[in-house]
Amino acid sequence: MEAQETMQNMSSTNTKTSAGFTLVELLVVAPIAILVISGLAALMINLVGDALITQQRNSSAYQTQDGLDQIEQDIRLSGSVLSTTGTLTSPQGSGQSTAAFVADAGTLDTNTALILNAYATTANPLLSTRALVYTNQPSGACPTPYTSNDPLKYKIVYFVSGGTLWRRTIVPTATLCGGAVPWQKNSCLPGSSGAVCITQDRRVVDDISSVAVTYYFESTNPYSVTTKSSLVATDNPTSVKVTIGTSKNIGNGSVTSSMSVYASRLND
Q1: Which DSSP helix (H) or strand (E) runs through 203?
Q2: How many angstroms separate the CA atoms of 41 and 54, rounded?
Q3: What number of helices (H) and strands (E) belong to the chain?
Q4: Which residues pair with 259 in a beta bridge?
Q5: Per-residue model confidence as pLDDT tens digits over 144-159
Q6: In the beta sheet, which residues pair with residue 94?
Q7: Which of 107, 131, 116 is nearest to 82 (CA)?
Q8: How far apart, in Å, are the Cα atoms of 222 and each of 39, 124, 171, 218, 227?
Q9: Is it true that the peptide bond before 172 is cis, omega within 30 degrees of 0?
Q10: What is the pTM of this model?
């Protein structure tokens, strides 16, 4: 009887002793487990990184296309394309000063801009209810209909500042026929102060790497097309091509894109 109990105790002791891992087994298994976990972690990081890159690529493409749509719309509705804005009221000028924006190079920056001369309207220019705003020139009496007077024109300026493409509107002061109030308002960069700053510049596209502008001139008899990357005062191109390049670092990679629009003016 005592022998049986002794054998049972020894069997129980042996069973308990063999239930865990030996040090040798742990030394063998641990590195394998670390490698497996590291591989899974790397895979998850890569998957997350790929998802972030795809998300950023889609976001950048949507924003750039939206910006190009706005530029195309403005070019089509503009009356002319200008070589300079002339001296402006601070902080609406180049570098938030009084300095003029100019169209003297192919790539936009804080000084070089795409400058459009557009017609001021009483409502959103895309609405059928909008009407042109007329000044009291050349006839101060504003005879009816006002169409014998000059329509009010304002400037749309596309420029790059702080890695962002901005859209600025510059509305001149004038005496208007019929007490009309232009729908378009003077704008400045966010955070700017001054009596001229009625609203904020529109943020068009972020993460800008370059914005290149090419001006097209069409002639007839015989038909020909010439291009320029800069303008002088006597130039008035018929069409404009704008190419927007963007770039943003995401994790260990970067997302870059380049998209273009070509638009012709419909108004003179």
Answers
A1: strand 202-205
A2: 20
A3: 2, 11
A4: 244
A5: 899 999 999 999 999 9
A6: 99
A7: 116
A8: 68, 39, 38, 10, 16
A9: no
A10: 0.80
User: Which residue has tokens 């070089």?
Assistant: 112
The per-residue pLDDT for range 128-146, each reduced to its tens digit, is: 999 999 999 998 889 989 9
Backbone angles phi, psi at 199, to 5 degrees: -140, 180
Distance CA 177, CA 179 (A): 6
| Beta-strand pair 239-250/208-219 | antiparallel
Site of tokens 């070019």: 75
Phi and psi of 148, rounded to 5°? -75, -10
Q: Which class for 122: exposed (0-12), middle (13-18), buried (19 or more C-beta within 10 A)?
A: middle
| Cα separations in angstroms, 209 against 48, 53, 60 | 25, 17, 12
Is 229 within 8 Å of 217 (Cβ atoms)?
A: no
Closest by CA to 95, choosing from 167, 173, 162, is 162
Residue 242 to residue 158: CA distance in whole angstroms: 11
Residue 26 structure tokens: 């742990």
Amino acid letter for position 24: V
Query: Residue 158: its pLDDT value, please?
Result: 98
